[in-house]
Structure formats: C-alpha cells, structure tokens
Amino acid sequence: MIDNIAVVDMHTGGEPVRIVTSGYPAMPPGGILEKRAYVRDNLDHLRRLLMFEPRGHADMYGALLVEPHLPEADLAVLFMHNEGYSTMCGHAVVALGRYAVDQGLVPAREPVTTVNIECPCGLVRADVEVTNGKTGAVSFESVPAFLHTRDASFDLPGFGTVSFDIAYGGAFYALANAVQLGLEFGRSRTRDFQDAATALTEAVKAAIPLDHPDDPDLAFLYGSILTDGHDGSGGVATRNVCVFADAQIDRSPTGSGVTARLAAMHARGAVGMGEERLFESIAGSRFTGSVASETRAGGYDAVTVRVSGRAHYTGKAEFMLEDGDDLGRGFLLR
C-alpha cells in the first residue's frame, strides 16, 4: 500500500510538470548526483507510479523536490520522465521558480524574485517577475553550455545522409535541420518527427562518445532536436521539436534545448552577446533566449544562456496504490 503522495501539476508552454510536494521516503545526505543515483536505484517504482498510466502518460514529466546540498541553493530538484532521470529541465525550472515564490519557499520581492535551484547539472538561477504580489514570467540563466561536436554526418537508414551538431545545455542534444529528414513544420505529422528524431538519437548514441568536464554522469545523449533551420532573429520564431528520453515529445520549445541551440549558434558566430532570439515549439508555445555570458567548461569554450517563458497551474492531487493493484504500479500504451 502506498498513499498520500501529494503533487501540484503545472505546465510550461504546454509541457507538463508534476511537482512532488510530499510522500517520498527520506533520502540519505549527499550531493545532487548522489541523490539522483539513490532515487534511480531504490525508489524508481515511485517514478513509474507518478509518470506512467493510469496517473500519467508516456509524455508526463516530473520534478521531485529534495534537500539542497549547495549552501547557496534555495531548493533542489530531481527531474523524472518516462525513461528515468534527467540532468536539466528548463521548462520545469520555469515552473519551479513560480511555484517557489507562490508557496513562500523564497520570500517574494518586487519586481523580481531570484530563486536559486540546484539541479543535477549544477546551480541554475531563476528570476521570477512579481507584480502586486502576483507571479508572472520566469527567466533562468543556464549552467555553462557548449558545442561538443560540429558538422558531424552519417548515413541514417531510411533517411539518407544527415548532418548534425551535438551541444550541451544542461543535457546533451543532437541538433539537426528537419528538412534533411524530409520533414516540414506545419505539414509533417508529429509521429514522423518523433520517429526521425528517435532514429537520429539512437544512431548518435552508437557512433559518438560524449564527455563532460564536471562529471561522467552528465555525459549522455538525452535526445535530438529537429529545427526548421532558421535562427529566431528579427522577431520571427524558429520552430523546433525536442524528442528525448524514450521517444518523449516536448510540447514546449525546451529550455535546455534552447540553451544548447544558442550555445551552438554562438560557437558558429551566428548570435552575439545579448541578442534575443525567439523559439517556438511544435505545439505553438514560445520561449525567448539570449547569450548571457562567455565562460569555459573544462576544455570547451562555453556560454551561459538566459531563457524566458511562462508556467501555469493545472491542478493538485494525492495519489495512492492499493494492495493487489498490479496495473496501478504503472504501465504505458502507445
């Protein structure tokens, strides 16, 4: 019997965020990556309970609040999805910034309240707009982001030769123009984007080893982002779709994905410091992004990126599992 796991549900640009507020067992002390490993190895049945059917679905996303390890952090979070546990999630950070101020986890200050959020990839600062006591848009500044692999290409079965970059924005993504894969935004089916991006992800995983200067636990390909090939300048949004984890489709423009795209664009000289660009998801929601600073990540030239968006509340619930309810432990149908 499992009962009284309390959640608050939000969405950022259409992408769900299920914030677990209570009901998880206590965790041993340690760093955020140690907590991530502990939850993965010991409490994964609760991820399945909350993310999978009948309480969730194949594209559900979750955020588990845990005790911070970094002294400057106001809160710490583990991200979860249909496959496991991510290292960064920008749309969840946007939601958590607003949630932290609304719930008094951080005292509200007008016009902007800063919330320091410890993520598995590092400390992320979220700035929450506050007007007359009400929270609004949220911006965050990323951890150091960088272009890892430039202009790689190979023959992708069923699609031909595909060129792509790999960039890190708190998580690693393969970035490719969707036209190469025979896809066009507004015309091609979402399922076709999903299949093509998943094929690219699996091929890149098999062909290209990744590394991260901070921790080997960060060095894995999270997914692929297919773009329309535009740069989001001049007030005209560039469209993209992110397919991550186990073929999960992001309804938002993807905060860590926007970060990775801007890091790659900056490395190519295609965007300057402070130049705002506009990004649109497959669902039509939008984030803005800009390069905030230049820095280093180990041996890589890197940048930090500022991403802005809005999150909204959709509900709250308490979940339980009755004895003998095997399907209630979680399953997925596609």
3D structure, described in words:
- The protein has 334 residues and is of the alpha+beta class.
- It is 19% helix and 41% strand.
- The mean pLDDT is 97.
Pick out its properties.
Diaminopimelate Epimerase, Chain A, domain 1, alpha+beta, 18-stranded mixed sheet, 18 strands, globular, 334 residues, 41% strand
What is shown here, in short?
With 334 residues, this protein is an alpha+beta fold.
The fraction of residues assigned to DSSP E strands is 35-45%
Uncertain regions: pLDDT < 50 for 5+ in a row? none
Gyration radius over CA: 19 Å
State the total count of DSSP E strands.
18
Overall geometry:
globular
What is the rounded distance between the termini? 28 Å
* CATH architecture grouping of the largest domain: Roll
Largest sheet features = 18 strands, mixed
Helical fraction equals 10-25%
CATH topology of the largest domain: Diaminopimelate Epimerase, Chain A, domain 1
Given the structure, what is the number of helices? 5
Mean pLDDT: 97
Question: What's the structural domain tally?
Answer: 2
Kindly report the name of the CATH homologous superfamily of the largest domain.
Answer: Diaminopimelate Epimerase, Chain A, domain 1
CATH class term of the largest domain: Alpha Beta
Give the arrangement of secondary structure elements:
Blueprint: E1 2-12, E2 15-22, H1 32-42, H2 44-51, E3 62-66, E4 75-80, E5 85-86, H3 90-102, E6 112-119, E7 122-131, E8 134-141, E9 146-156, E10 160-168, E11 172-177, H4 190-207, E12 221-227, E13 238-244, E14 248-249, H5 255-267, E15 277-280, E16 286-297, E17 300-309, E18 311-321
Parallel strand pairs: 2-3, 4-6, 11-12, 13-15
Antiparallel strand pairs: 1-2, 1-18, 3-4, 4-5, 6-7, 7-8, 8-17, 9-10, 10-11, 12-13, 13-14, 15-16, 16-17
